[in-house]
Amino acid sequence: MGDGRPANSELPTAAGYCCWLRAAAIIATCRETAISHQLKRRSIPDSRFPTLSHPHRSAVRDLTGATKKDILALGRENNVRFLRLQFTDILGVNKNVELPASQFEKALDGDIMFDGSSIEGFVRIEESDMLLSPDLSTFQLFPWGDSENRVARLICDINTPDGQPFDGDPRAALKRQIARAAALGYTMNAGMEAEFFMFKPGAEGEPATVTNDVGGYFDLAPADLGEDARRAMVDMLERMGFEVEAAHHEVAHGQHEIDFRYADALKTADNIATFRFVVKHVARQFGLVASFMPKPIFGQNGSGMHTHQSLFRGDKNAFYAPNAEWQLSPVALSYIGGLLRHARGMCAVTNPLVNSYKRLVPGYEAPVNVAWSMRNRSPLIRVPDRRGMGTRVELRMPDPAANPYLALAVMLASGLDGIETSADHREPVNTNIWEMSYREKRRLRIDDLPHDLNEALDELEKDDVITSALGAHIATNFLEAKRQEWRDYITQVTQWERDNYLLKY
Fold this sequence. Notes:
By secondary structure, the chain is an alpha+beta fold. It is built from 15 helices and 18 strands. The model is unreliable at 1-15 and 17-56 (pLDDT under 50).
C-alpha cells in the first residue's frame, strides 16, 4: 500500500502485537530475541515489526533549525521511500499528499502545489492553487510498515502561489497569536488531554457504538479490555517523539485517555493532530474503531480535551507570584478574566459540533457554567494546586473534535485580551455550581455556556476578539460551514421524537 502499511490480509493479529509488546517490556535487554520467538511461534514475518535504534523513543533527534540537507540525509539513513506532507482544513480534519523519494527535494523547497478549492473552507475554484510549505522541525518516521521502505511525514503551512501565508490556514492563525504574545514578551505553553472511545465495528465493518469493555475510571483488566490497544498506542507515540506521561481508562465504558507532556502552543497543536491519527491507526490494527466524537453514547460521560495553559516570560512562569493571593500573578488573573469574558464567543471553536453540546450538560462532569475555581471541577476553569514553574490554568470545556490550531489560537487571544485590558477575573467559586440555585448563580455573575451550536455561532459572530483571532477568511468560512451543519441537523427526525410523539399525537 502507498502509505507503507501492509495489506489488511497481512496485518498482525491484536494478540500477536500484544505479546510482542509484553515481551519487549519484560525482556528489554533481549528485545530482538523475544520478538523473534513470538514471531516464529506465530509464523509472522519479521518485517511487520520494524526495528528502530531506540525501541520506545523516536529515532529522529530534535530537528530545531534543521535544513533541507539534514532532512534529505535523515531520509537516506532511514530508508524513507515515501513522504507525507500533512496539514488540516478549518474543521481540523487531517489532510495529506504523499510523494515518492524522487520528489523529496521539490517538497522540501515548498514547491508542491495542490487544489485548495477541494479542501473545506479554503478557496473558491477560480483561486484554487495553494503551496505546501513544510516545517522541517516536524519531520518524523511512521513506526510501522516495511523497514526497507519507510514512510515519513512533515507538517506543513499553506502558502499562496506568491509565497505569502494563506489567510485560511489554521496553523497560520495560531502562529499569528503566538507572534502577538511574543510581542508582549510571552510564550504560551499548553497541554491538551484528548479523551477518546474505542468501539467494536458493526457486522459489516460499519461504525457502531458497542464498546469492547465495561471499565470505569482507572480500571484495569479484565474490566478494561482496551489496555493492550492503549499500550500499543503509547509505544507508537513514543516512537514518534512523544513523551507520554500516563495512559488510563476513563469514566465511561470504552473511554480512554493518554496524556503526553506539555509543549509550546504550536508543537502541542501539531501533537494533537498526530495523536488523533496514531490512535485511529492503532485501534484499527486491533479490530476496533477509535472515535473523538464528544458524546457518542447517551447516558455516559462524553470526551473532553481539557487544556492546561500558562504564559512564560523567558524562563519564568508569568502566572506565578509567591506572595500574592492564591499565589497567582496579576497576569494570571487577567488571563483568567479574558478566558471568562470570551468563553461564550470561543465556544463554537473549542466545541464545534452539534454533538458537542450534548456533552456540555449537567451531571456528566463537563462544565456548563462560566466561572473559575481552585479545586472544584464543576466550573469552566480550574487552577490546579501546583505552583512555581507548574502554575497554570485548565480550561475544561474544549472537546477533541476541535481544530487544535484554532482552539489554541482563540484561547491565547482571549487570555491576551484579558491581560491587555486587565479583565475582571471575579472571585473563584469553590462550591458545587451544579447545586446552586438560579438566583445564587446570578448573584455571583455566573453565566451559562451556549446550549447548542446555533447559540454558540451567534456568540462567535458577536465577539470581535475571537473573529479577529481567526481572521476574516477562517471566521467567514467556519461560520458558513457550521450554520449549514446546524440547518442539516434541525431538519432530521430522530428516534427520540418518534418514540415520544408518534403515538401520542
